[in-house]
User: What shape does this take?
Amino acid sequence: MNNFFQAAMLLLTLGCLMCLYRIGRGPTAPDRTISVDILGTLMVGFCCCMALVTGQDYYLTVAIAWAMTNFVGTLALAKYLEGRCYDA
Amino acid sequence: MLERIGYIVIGIGVAFEILGCIGLIRLSDVYDRAVAATKCVTMGTCMMLCGVALFGAASGNWSMLVKAVICALFVLLTSPVAAHAVLRGAYLSGVPMAHTGAEDGFAQRAGELRRQHQANGQPAESAGQEQEASHEEA
Assistant: This one.
């Protein structure tokens, strides 16, 4: 059981490295914004693995809170990209 | 039995996430990349959360099941909305497409929106040049 989740978290780390590559390399600002969004969604996957490895369910609370802050931050960056004020 | 199904579902979810991240690296355009990555990673995360819910049901841990289902619904609702907002911002700020063979249904509406923003007196310094560029394209 632990080997399975270790392999899953290793693959998720690989995905995080790909996202970090796109954040550093990405030619435009929307590339970086999308990559940050994807990175946050991958963190929810990490929280799933940790919840199953440790058997504690508060990791899923962390996952819900992380998804919410990720959503709000991405929407703020999207408003900024659209080239107008935050309250328009 | 439920645990076995949970293992399979979590494995499929991790595979989807990896494929989405490969799409984020390999594709040629911000729109292509965003569509591939968002769809695959949202699906993968939702499948991982469904797997966690199956594990919770198998072990009788009901709070784990309920939290996983709530989180899956939340990710399923918000992740496409965020990607749509970012891509709308990217189009309105003038990021070019790699392949411009298809019909662009949003061009006219985008021009109207840019004119509205300028008429409202928004501080859009870089929007002027991009607007001229889009007019040339149109």
The radius of gyration of chain A is 15 Å. The longest helix of chain A spans residues 29-54.
